[in-house]
Structure formats: C-alpha cells, structure tokens
C-alpha cells in the first residue's frame, strides 16, 4: 500500500507526502523512494510507532549512486549528533570511489574513531555501504552554501508535526483521574492526529473531515438563533468552529475563552462568515500547551517592553508577570521605551503573583559631553601648525573598511601652505553605493599605490601638527587603525573636530553637515565627497570658526573645551540605555529624569542628557541597553579599546542579547539583522572588558511579546500604526520572553562556553535582582493639599450656614446629619478637600459665574451648607425663610421636596420654601465615612481657565498638574492595523487570524492626553516626583499645561483630583439671567407650565408631532433634548421633579434603560418609580428589604461599576425576599448614575426649561449663541419650508457629528419659527460679533454665523464700526479682518446693501 493511502485510511489526511510503500508484519516497514536525514528519520519512526504501537523500520526501494552523497551531504548530516565535525568533511569522487577530504586534523581523528556514524549515513542514504576513505587536505575551504538545498527529498517535517500527538496521550495522561464526560464536551472521545492550522489549506482538498486543536480565544453566542461561533488558534493560524442548536448551547455552557480544546469535524465554506469553518462532531478539552521553564536554576529578565511602550510592544504586563511567576522566576523587570507608565499596574500584579517587580526604562540618551578637542594635554597655542584632512573610504566601519583617498592641507600662520592628495588601491572592490557618493570608481584605483606606500608619506606630512577634520572621530579612527596595522605604531595625535565646533558656534537648522556650514559661512560651492576638496574647504571653515571662537574669549586651543557646553543637545546623536531602580531614591530620580526628558529636553522624542543621568544615578542601575547603545555605536565607528573601556566604565552592568533578537539600521543583510560574526566579536570584547572592571555582564531578552509566535502581532502593530508618509519596517528577529534554557542556548551560541552562559544568564541576572529593593510606588493613601485650619473652617462654615437656613436650635434631623458627616470628613482628613472646593466655587460665584456640581457630592449636606453644591440631600421638607419653621416628610410619600404641595408657614403665614432630594450621605463616603470624597464641579466654559489659574495660585504652580490620560489601541483600531498589515505585508491572513492578532494588539498605548478638567493637587510638603513623573499632553511642547505621566486613575487614591470641568449649562444660565434680569435661584422648581413640557408641547403653543415627530417640548433642554431621552419622556410622561431625576439616571446609565428597566415597565413587573434608576436606589432598597447596611453599600458599588453580583450577594438578596427582577436587573447594569448628579443636572435643566416657556426669545438667543456651532445661516434665513426640507434630508441618511449637530440646531430653529418668532440677517451696524440679539419678535444673527468668518474677523467688524461708519466695501476690507470671499458672502446675504464699492472722493474737501 502506498504510504499516502495508508495515512488517509488511518488519519483521513496525509501530513507528510512521503513517497513510497508500507508493509505491516510484526513491525511496520516503510519503503522510501528517497532517504531521510537522521533527524527526520527519527521523527518519522516516532510518529508511525505511536500511531501503530509497533516497531518501525525504514529501507530504500532503490539504490542511489555516489553522486547523491555529494549533492545532499549537508541535508544528510542535519541533526546528527556529530554534525559539527561532519561539516569539516567534503565528499568527493575519485576514480569512482568515494573520498572525504578533511581540513581539520581534530575532526579527522574524530570521524576515524566513529566510522560507524559515516557507515550509517551512507547505508541509510544509498541503500548499501560503499568503500570510502579520508584524505587530509588543509587547503580546502568548504562553502556549505553549495551543498544546501531548499528541500529535504520528498519529505519535510515541520516543527508543528514534531509536537503532534498521534494517540491522544495528553488526554489520557493529564486527565486520567477525570471521568470521560468531564473532558468530552461533544460527541465521543477520539484518538487522531491534529493538523496544524496553517496546514489546513493543503489538507482540506484531500478530505473534508479534519482534527485540529488549540486555544479558544474568542466566542460569540447568538441566543436567539442559538448559534455559537468559536475562534480557535494554535498560534500558527486561526479558524472558526461553528455550532448550532443543542450543540451550540452545550458548548457555550461548557467551554470558556482561554481553554484548550481538540475538535474533530467537517470543514466547510460558510457564506455568512465568508470563511472556511469547522462544524464539530466531537470536541474534547485538553491540557494547555504552553512553554515551561524546567531548568533547575532560573534566570531573571532585566529588559522587557510592555504594551506601554508606544506602538512597539504587544506584551501585556499581566501576561509577563504571571508567566515569570509560573516559571519560578523570583523577579522580572519592565523597561518600557521612554516611559514608566506601567509601574503602578506592574506593582499590583507582581504583588499578587508574589514576584519582585523591577522598575526600569529604556531611555534615549545624548552624550552632551561631546568633545571639540581630543588628545590635548599640554597647552597648544593658536599659532600651531595644523593639518586639515579627509579620507574617502570603502565604508563606515574603521575596523573592516579601507581608505581609498587621502586629502589634506597644511595650515601655517593661518595660511594654507601645502597640499597632500593620494588615491589608494584597496584590497577589495569599492561598493557601488560608495562609488555613487564619492565619484571614485574601481577603474580609477587600478594603478593607484597601496596603502603601505601612501601611509608613511601621509604620516610624514602631518608630523608636528594638530589634526583637524569635520566629524573628526571618523577619519582619525581610520588613521589610527591603519597606522597600527601597517606601521605597528599606536598614535595619539591632538585633533580638533569642526563638526562639534560648528554646533557650538553656529545655530543652524537641520544639522551641521559640511556643505551647510560652508554655505552659512559664505565660503561658496565645492565638490563634496572628494577628499582633497573636502580637506581644503574644511580648512577655510576651521579658520573662520577659530575667528568666531576668539570672539567668544577663547585664547588657546585648549580653551575650545569651554565651547562644548554651548552645543545644543538637539544636534547630538541619541543612544539607548537601560535604567533600573534599586530603591525609592532611585525611583524619584528616575521620575525626575523621565519628566525632564518629556518636557525640557523633548525634541522629536524624549531625551535624557548623559551628564544629568550620571548626576542623578543614586539609587539607579545603569545598563548598556540594546545594540543601539553608545558602546556598540562607537565600536562600529572604530573606537579604540581605551575608548570602549571608558564607555564601559559608565555602566553598572552590561547587556548582551540573543543574536536573533537584534534589529539595527546598520544592517548587513536584507532582512535587517546584523552580521552575527561582527556582533559575536563585539559581545566577546564587551564581556572581557567588563570583567576587567568587575562590571557584571547579563543576558537580556529585549522582550516585546510573550511567545515566539506573537511576532506577527507586533509586526502588525508596527506596520498598521504607520501614518501616511511614515516609513516603518519589521525585522526578521525574535524578541519573545525566553525560558532559562532558551536564553542559555542563545548565550552558548555567542560564547560557546557553558560556564560563561550560566554566569551571564543566571548568576549575574539574579545578582542584579538582589540589588533591587521591593518598592511600593504608590501608598494608596490620600495625600491631601495643606490648608491651615481647614478642619475648623469647614466646621464653622457648615454650622453658620445651617443656622442661617434652618434657624437655631437646628432641627434634630439637620443637626444629626451634619454631626455625622463632619465626623467622617474631619476624622479622615478630608476637610481640606471640602474647603478647597468651597474656595473655588466662591471665587467663581464672586466673579459672576455659577458653578454646578457633578457626581455624588450632592449627597453631602456639609457640601450644600458650604455652597459647593445646590443639591440638598435631606428628606423632602418645608422651611420658612422668615421664622425658620421647618417640616420634614420622612414617610417616603415624596422623593423630592420640589414636588411637595405649596404650603404657607403656620407661624408667620408666608409661603414656605421646599427642598430636599432624600439622598443618603453614605452614597458619597460609605458607611464608615472613609471613602475618598470625589468633588467634581461644572464651571462655565468661559470661566474654566480662570478657575484653573485660581487653583494654581492657591496651591502653587509646581503643585497643580492636569490629570494625565493614556489612550490605547481600541478593538476596531487594532483590527484596522492588522488588515493594513495583511494587505501591505502579509497577504492571505484569514479573518479569524486577523481577529486573534487584533486582540493581542488591543490595549497597546497609542498616546497620552489630559482629563478635560481634572487637576491633580500635590501637597506643599511633597514633590510631584514623589508620586509620578510629568509631561506635556501628547508630548505637545506647545501645550501650556503639564500633566501627570501616570494615568490619573492609578494615582487617584494618593493625590487629590479636583474636577473643574467646563460646561455649557452655567454659561447658559448666566446669559439667560443677564438677558431677562431673572435670578435663576428664584425660579420656582414646581412651575406647572415648565413641568408640562416634559410630557407635552402645549405650553409652547405648538404641536411638534407632525413636523418634528415629538410630542414633548424639551428640544434644546440639557439632558432632555436628545431623541433618545425624548422617547423616554414620551413613554413615561413624568409629572414630578423626582420622576425627572429618575429619567436622568436611567438615561445616563449603561444597560439600565434599554433591555432592562424599560422591559420591566412594559411587562408590568415594575413601575417607573420602582426600577433601578440611580445607584442610590440599590442601597436604599436593599436596606429596606433587611440586608446589612454595609453589605448593601458594597453591592451598590459593585453594580454601579458593572461588576455584577457575587453568588453570596445573590444568596443574601434572595434570603431577604428581593424579587428576581431586581436581582436580574443588577446583573445587567454596566454603569449607574448617582442620584445627586442627576438631581444637579435636572435642577439646571428645569431652570433652563423655565426660560424656554416664559422667556422664549431669551432662551433661543442663548441657545444659538452658546450651542449653535452648526447654525446653517443660509438655510435658516430662507424660512420654514427650507428648514423643514433640510431636516427631512438629514433624517433620510446616516450623519456625521457635524451633521447631527446641524440637525439639532435646525429643529430648534424650526420650533422657534412655529412659535411665531423669526430671524434677521446680520447687519453691518446692528449685529453682534458672537451673540444673537433680540429685536422685537426676532433674533438678529451674529457675524460669526456667516460661513467661513472667524471670531477675530467678526470682532474686528464691531470694533471698526464703533470707531466710525464704513464709507465703502473697500473701507470695510481695509479696517477689518475680513477677506474678499467674506465680502462676496455678505453681498449674497444682502448685508452690504447701500454700501459703495470704493470710497467717494470729495472735490471740495481740500478747499475747506
């Protein structure tokens, strides 16, 4: 039977494509057409042995001739235990006999002693054993590339098949203690080989039935159609498993995301998915197949990048830490590039996993100690002899490249006196690129002298002179190397670098290349990149720069060193270094360095100055970093051993990284990887030099992803995130988190010494880890700002206001509430937070701007009494403004005091005021009163900047920072990245694999920003660096604010965050009060006409049903004007303030109204007054049902954050007869609004609604002035029909944000016209720049609503007309900021009627 037919009968597919036959007797015999190498033969035998549970033998069907050995030698010895020695054998045929030529005596002796190995290879490969002999030949140079083929006969065994389980032993062994039903999820147990998913395309044309296995990384369950779609991956590829009806339900209930399963099923094309999917027949759970670190001693990773490294890493912090802990590593470091934003998260996860976190950062460093003069010891005067020189070379690396042209000029007494110019014939050809740059061809050098002839002449020419060159290190290092090689002399000649001189003395944009310096110094044109021409012009540059240096007070050449501090860091090369934190002092120093790098020294990207790094190194460990470090860069540029040693001495430890991990722009191959031989040499030099200084050398992984297979995801992130015009590329490198054994192998590849490998991989990394203290970066305790006497002031202000409002003695309910609150506030140190907020609110109010509260602060009566919020949290009550008579309604008959019936004071007869929203204090600060109070405030948008400035003045500019935010790659963006990667770089990715890669990318940091109004306050006795670094938002140097480097959420428990947001409502009410003279605080909160528009538009005098399709009158009312909330109003028809508060809560929550409360109301299970609308409802209801108060509070906290209910919560609720609908409602909620926030918003909205009903033109003027950004002047001036047509047009299609805003404005304009009011066009003398003006029953449109007219131009018209009338259109143009396009728009709108084009000249003007 053919082998392929045999496999199809057993497995239903052929994984190998072996050509030959199979026989089965007492053993299985494979007769192959072509031989296998030893490694592959072992794998095949193992595979068939496990499949058939019998011995396996392999023979060849036909014999091969000797030439087969010559053609396939490298393939045949691949995997042999003696492969390293067998590679020294060169097979040959002489007189029809096989001989092996050997160039290495040790290898010759080795193979002679082990002839059996050669016999085995020959007999296995040829089918017989020929005669052969060994011949020692030291002259041969074996080029193995000539032997390598891109195939392995008819059989090619992948790594994936090497790990395949033929008989499902993983299930039998790992789950043998379980019952079959525990791991068979669908169908029956099966024992068949799994196909790697990336091989499915090859297999599915042979059979429709397949077996695959992998991890379920995502699933979707359609509970209506009962369809389960599971996405599974084995990291080679991904595919969809699709199940229906009973199978779908069973699988959904028994398989979770993250579990590993094995599936047998049919592969079929799914029209809905537009993909091949597998319809399962049998599914079993299997053990997770993950790497383990089973080496006895463990290493420590000291260089890893998490997703916080902007758009560069896909390594999740939690995955890294959990994996390191699981492998038994005692510590792990995260060294994100440029940032330390992972630190708080990193600490929390590491603490949980009981592993030491090592904080660090890979920073960009510039050596700002850049030199102008080198090798200067004695004083050297200006009148010294100079030789200005330049070399043309075959390449950039002085260690391996050659000089092809010498050019030099001698300067004596400031004059060029001699010239040296020689071409040199190199030992190798000049690369084409160098020929293009220099114009020097190989033909030009054929008859040139050798460097042995030219170099002594050049050395004679430069004797007794100071050398000068532009970028002098380059040329000097070539000279030094070749003098050593040719003349065996170690030179140390003084030299000057004109590049550094020009950086210090000339302020040029875009670099200081020789041609740019020549141009700015006015030295004319020259033939660049020929040595003699470059030398001549550099001489003139040098003389000019010397004159400038003298003008700066430089008296000797040695004094040029004083210019070095004038070199702008922006002009210097950046290198990478790694910094680890040893202790808390180091952490603070790192924060300072990161802050300066992001602010003071930010240029294109972050920058750390080397001298500042060294000055702040206390508590830090400085590592050399990746191959973009200063040592490797200088080594590549020909630095001497002394120079290398001087650089090594800067560091606390030296890093070496696996050869296959290195990415570097100075590449020697197309895939971007560096020449491994060169890197090995460098690493060995580095190791030996570091040992001389007793500096530990460590092997680090530079990990950017967890597993080797995740490289695709990082590549997709890099390619996908590239913006238009941005060039990004990926390299053929491996930057995954390695086990100890994997790292030891990488070290051995470099040093070929097990002792060194263990030293740098295990011993030294653990020593470094032991130097690091375990540091808690944030205490988790609040550090409030310091205001002297805050406790007493809060106490006094509260009692004073309470007595003013409620009289003395205070009602017991008021007194008890205040005492309870003050005790919690003051005892926990939160008084300063209240006083801080009070001062800011008072300042705004004194400046004429009202402040609204947000969040739960309205739950605090102390906040109310201090004027921080207008929301009164007491139970509904009456209060007499005169005699202070009060009456509290505590029986639950009313939820809001505003809904109480009108009542006169029984004592003095005047009308009682009504207040109280019945909100428990515990919502704000918990039953222990220890929850940090979060005081959020809404300032007028016009006043927000002034409010922030006041806060800075109150606490100090260096103690107030904007709350930083971190933006990460969202789900859709990640998907887009991978799609782009697939299209541009990796065609053929299936959609499930795209989704998998996108999920790995998701959460990677994109950029930073700032909270719209959040301010972080640092106490005066501390520095911000005690908590976080700082930076510009989004690294924008033009920003006038600095933010916390950490996202404000992670430092919220340590620093006070004050939300001082800009909001339209306070601006709205201020403008309405200004227009009408009505004080907003005096508006009756139970005005019946106002209340009616929340259920009908009758009070507006119009029916909006037909044209605007709404029955309510809340268009333009904050919180109630959207189509969604209007729909809620139409369904619920609220008649009370309390009902409006509930609707506000329902509309602001997530999964609170739709698919939750609305369904309960419609089904009759609960009423609008019973459903959960605000977070307070949960706590109050549970306490009412008998649950413990504290437990009720914690349930509320969990539900409001979308965390659902724990089993013990449900048990307790059911025990206390909480209805099932209430429990289920809690489980659906993702976010819940606080009642205090809803009450504050509704209070504002109701007042604005009052003006809409009673002062309509003031309302519309204010609305269009404050919120009418998309006011379509052209359409609106055409009248009602044009507006209606535009509304219908917009509603007929999908809209962008601007169009949605335009639709809202048009609807309100239409409503205004229906109410009998109109619009007037802008008038050159009557219109305001920005605000709508009331004229009779009309609104005059301001200039800013003219299309394409900006605010400055609009203001300029008003200013100009105040000076004098406009004489003409020409005069208007000359005196204002408008342009001709605006003039044409004005003409079309009729604004310029009667105004002539030109100024009219008065003939008699000159005679008068």
Blueprint (SSEs and pairs):
Blueprint: H1 3-11, E1 20-24, E2 28-32, H2 38-52, E3 56-60, H3 67-77, H4 83-86, E4 89-94, E5 97-102, H5 105-113, H6 115-126, E6 132-136, H7 159-162, H8 169-174, H9 180-183, E7 184-186, H10 200-203, E8 209-222, E9 227-233, E10 238-244, H11 245-254, E11 260-270, E12 275-286, H12 317-326, E13 331-334, H13 343-353, E14 356-366, E15 373-374, E16 386-393, E17 403-412, E18 415-423, H14 432-438, H15 451-462, E19 466-469, H16 472-487, E20 495-497, H17 498-505, H18 514-520, H19 531-551, E21 574-581, H20 584-598, E22 608-609, H21 610-615, E23 620-623, H22 630-636, H23 641-648, E24 654-656, H24 676-692, E25 697-699, H25 711-720, H26 740-751, H27 754-771, H28 790-806, H29 812-827, H30 831-846, E26 852-854, H31 861-865, E27 877-879, E28 886-888, E29 913-915, H32 922-925, E30 936-940, H33 944-955, E31 960-968, H34 971-984, H35 991-1001, E32 1005-1017, E33 1030-1031, E34 1043-1044, H36 1048-1051, E35 1056-1063, H37 1064-1076, H38 1088-1092, H39 1105-1108, H40 1123-1132, H41 1137-1148, H42 1153-1163, H43 1175-1185, H44 1189-1200, H45 1207-1215, ...
Parallel strand pairs: 2-3, 5-6, 10-12, 13-14, 14-22, 16-19, 19-20, 24-25, 30-35, 36-38
Antiparallel strand pairs: 1-2, 4-5, 7-12, 8-9, 8-11, 9-10, 11-12, 14-21, 15-20, 16-17, 17-18, 21-23, 26-30, 27-28, 27-29, 31-32, 32-35, 33-34, 37-38
């Amino acid at each position: 039977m053919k082998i392929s037919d045999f496999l199809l009968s057993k497995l239903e597919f052929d994984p190998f494509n072996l050509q030959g036959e199979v026989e089965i007797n007492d053993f299985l015999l494979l007769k192959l057409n072509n031989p296998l190498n030893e490694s592959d033969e072992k794998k095949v035998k193992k595979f068939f042995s496990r499949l058939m549970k019998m011995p396996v033998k392999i023979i060849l069907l036909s014999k091969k001739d000797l030439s087969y050995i010559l053609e396939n030698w490298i393939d045949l010895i691949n995997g042999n235990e003696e492969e390293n020695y067998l590679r020294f054998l060169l097979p040959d045929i002489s007189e029809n006999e096989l001989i092996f030529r050997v160039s290495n005596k040790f290898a010759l002796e080795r193979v002679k002693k082990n002839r059996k190995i050669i016999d085995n290879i020959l007999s296995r490969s040829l089918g017989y054993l020929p005669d052969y002999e060994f011949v020692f030949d030291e002259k041969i140079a074996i080029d193995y590339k000539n032997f390598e083929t891109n195939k392995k006969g008819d059989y090619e065994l992948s790594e994936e098949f090497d790990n395949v389980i033929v008989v499902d032993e993983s299930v039998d062994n790992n789950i043998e203690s379980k019952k079959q039903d525990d791991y068979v999820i669908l169908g029956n147990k099966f024992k068949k080989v799994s196909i790697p998913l990336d091989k499915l395309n090859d297999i599915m044309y042979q059979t429709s039935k397949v077996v695959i296995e992998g991890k379920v990384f995502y699933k979707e369950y359609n509970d209506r159609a009962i369809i389960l779609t599971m996405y599974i991956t084995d990291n080679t590829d991904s595919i969809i498993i699709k199940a229906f009806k009973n199978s779908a339900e069973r699988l959904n209930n028994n398989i979770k995301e993250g579990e590993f399963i094995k599936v047998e099923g049919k592969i079929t094309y799914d029209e809905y998915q537009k993909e091949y999917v597998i319809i399962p027949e049998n599914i079993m759970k299997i053990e997770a197949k993950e790497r383990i670190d089973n080496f006895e001693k463990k290493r420590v990773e000291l260089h890893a990048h998490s997703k916080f490294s902007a758009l560069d890493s896909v390594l999740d912090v939690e995955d890294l830490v959990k994996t390191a802990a699981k492998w038994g590593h005692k510590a792990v470091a995260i060294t994100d590039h440029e940032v330390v934003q992972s630190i708080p998260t990193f600490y929390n996860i590491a603490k949980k996993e009981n592993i030491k976190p090592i904080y660090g950062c890979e920073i960009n460093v510039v050596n700002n100690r850049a030199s102008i003069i080198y090798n200067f010891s004695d004083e050297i005067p200006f009148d010294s002899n100079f030789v200005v020189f330049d070399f043309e070379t075959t390449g950039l690396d002085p260690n391996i490249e050659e000089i092809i042209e010498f050019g030099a000029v001698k300067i004596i007494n400031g004059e060029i006196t001699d010239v040296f110019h020689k071409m040199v014939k190199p030992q190798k050809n000049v690369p084409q690129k160098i020929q293009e740059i220099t114009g020097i061809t190989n033909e030009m050098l054929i008859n040139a002298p050798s460097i042995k002839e030219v170099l002594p002449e050049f050395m004679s020419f430069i004797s007794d002179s100071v050398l000068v060159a532009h970028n002098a290190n380059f040329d000097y290092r070539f000279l030094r190397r070749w003098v050593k090689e040719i003349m065996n002399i170690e030179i140390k000649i003084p030299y000057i670098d004109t590049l550094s001189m020009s950086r210090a003395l000339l302020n040029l944009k875009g670099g200081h290349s020789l041609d740019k310096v020549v141009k700015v110094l006015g030295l004319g044109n020259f033939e660049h990149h020929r040595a003699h021409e470059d030398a001549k012009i550099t001489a003139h540059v040098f003389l000019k720069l010397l004159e400038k240096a003298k003008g700066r007070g430089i008296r000797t050449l040695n004094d040029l060193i004083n210019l070095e501090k004038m070199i702008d860091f922006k002009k210097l090369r950046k290198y990478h270094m790694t910094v680890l934190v040893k202790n808390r002092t180091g952490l603070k120093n790192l924060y300072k360095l990161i802050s300066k790098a992001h602010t003071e020294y930010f240029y294109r990207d972050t920058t750390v100055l080397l001298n500042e790094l060294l000055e702040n190194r206390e508590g830090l460990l400085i590592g050399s970093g990746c191959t973009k470090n200063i040592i490797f860069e200088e080594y590549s540029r020909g630095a001497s051993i002394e120079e290398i040693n001087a650089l090594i001495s800067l560091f606390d430890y030296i890093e070496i990284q696996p050869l296959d991990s290195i990415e570097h722009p100075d590449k020697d191959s197309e895939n971007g990887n560096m020449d491994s031989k060169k890197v090995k040499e460098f690493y060995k030099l580095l190791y030996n030099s570091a040992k001389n200084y007793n500096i530990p050398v460590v092997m680090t992984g530079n990990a950017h992803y967890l597993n080797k297979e995740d490289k695709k995801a990082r590549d997709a992130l890099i390619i996908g995130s590239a913006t238009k015009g941005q060039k990004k590329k990926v390299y053929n490198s491996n930057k995954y988190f390695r086990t100890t054994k994997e790292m030891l192998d990488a070290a051995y590849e470099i040093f070929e010494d097990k002792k060194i490998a263990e030293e740098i991989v295990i011993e030294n990394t653990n020593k470094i880890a032991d130097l690091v203290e375990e540091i808690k970066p944030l205490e988790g305790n609040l550090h409030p700002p310091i205001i002297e006497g805050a406790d007493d002031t809060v106490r006094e202000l509260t009692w004073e206001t309470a007595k003013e409002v409620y009289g003395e003695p205070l009602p017991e309910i008021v007194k008890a509430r205040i005492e309870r609150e003050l005790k919690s506030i003051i005892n926990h140190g939160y008084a300063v937070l209240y006083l801080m907020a009070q001062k800011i609110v008072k300042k705004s109010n004194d400046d004429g701007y009202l402040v609204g509260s947000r969040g739960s602060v309205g739950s605090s009566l102390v906040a109310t009494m201090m004027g921080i919020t207008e929301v009164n949290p007491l139970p509904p009550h009456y209060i007499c403004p005169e005699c202070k008579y009060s009456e509290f309604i505590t029986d639950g008959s009313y939820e809001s005091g505003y809904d109480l019936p009108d009542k006169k004071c029984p004592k003095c007869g005047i009308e009682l005021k009504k207040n109280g929203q019945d909100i428990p204090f515990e919502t704000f600060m918990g039953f222990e009163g220890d929850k940090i109070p979060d005081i959020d405030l809404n300032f007028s948008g016009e006043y927000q900047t002034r409010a922030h400035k006041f806060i800075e003045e109150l606490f100090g500019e260096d103690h107030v920072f904007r709350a930083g935010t971190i933006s990460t790659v969202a789900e859709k963006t990640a998907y887009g990245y991978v799609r782009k990667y697939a299209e541009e770089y990796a065609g053929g990715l299936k959609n499930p694999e795209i989704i998998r890669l996108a999920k790995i990318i998701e959460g990677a940091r994109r950029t930073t920003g700032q909270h719209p109004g959040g301010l972080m306050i640092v106490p005066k006795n501390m520095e911000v660096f005690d908590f976080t670094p700082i930076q510009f938002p989004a690294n924008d140097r033009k920003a006038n604010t600095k933010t916390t480097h950490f996202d404000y959420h992670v430092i919220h428990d340590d620093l006070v965050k004050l939300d001082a947001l800009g909001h339209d409502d306070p601006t709205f009410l201020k403008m309405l009060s200004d227009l009408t003279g009505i004080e907003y605080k005096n508006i009756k909160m139970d005005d019946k006409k106002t209340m009616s528009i929340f259920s009908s538009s009758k009070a507006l005098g119009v029916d909006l049903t037909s044209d605007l399709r709404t029955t309510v009158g809340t268009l333009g009312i904050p919180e109630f004007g959207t189509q969604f909330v209007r729909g809620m109003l139409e369904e619920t028809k609220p008649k009370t303030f309390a009902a409006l508060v509930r609707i506000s809560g329902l509309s602001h929550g997530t999964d609170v109204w739709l698919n939750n409360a609305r369904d309960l109301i419609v089904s009759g299970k609960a009423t609008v007054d019973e459903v959960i609308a605000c977070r307070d409802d949960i706590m109050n209801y549970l306490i009412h049902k008998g649950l413990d108060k504290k437990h009720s509070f914690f349930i509320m906290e969990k539900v409001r954050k979308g965390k659902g209910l724990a089993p013990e919560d449900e048990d307790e609720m059911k025990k206390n007869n909480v209805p099932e609908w209430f429990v289920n409602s809690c489980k659906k909620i993702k976010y819940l609004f606080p009642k205090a926030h809803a009450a504050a918003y509704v209070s504002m909205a109701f007042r604005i609604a009052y003006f809409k009903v009673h002062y309509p033109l003031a309302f519309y003027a204010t609305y269009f002035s404050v919120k009418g950004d998309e006011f379509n002047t052209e359409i609106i001036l055409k009248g009602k029909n044009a507006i209606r047509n535009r509304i219908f047009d917009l509603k007929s299609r999908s809209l962008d944000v601007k169009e949605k805003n335009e639709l809202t404005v048009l609807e309100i304009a239409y409503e205004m016209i229906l109410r009998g009011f109109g619009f007037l066009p802008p008038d050159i003398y009557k219109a305001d720049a920005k605000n709508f003006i009331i004229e009779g029953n009309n609104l005059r449109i301001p200039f800013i609503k003219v299309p394409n007219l900006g605010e400055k131009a609009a203001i300029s018209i008003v200013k100009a007309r105040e000076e004098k009338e406009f004489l003409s259109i020409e005069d208007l143009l000359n005196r204002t900021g408008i342009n001709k396009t605006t003039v044409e728009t004005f003409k079309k709108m009729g604004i310029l009627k009667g105004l002539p084009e030109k100024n009219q000249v008065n003939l008699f003007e000159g005679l008068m």
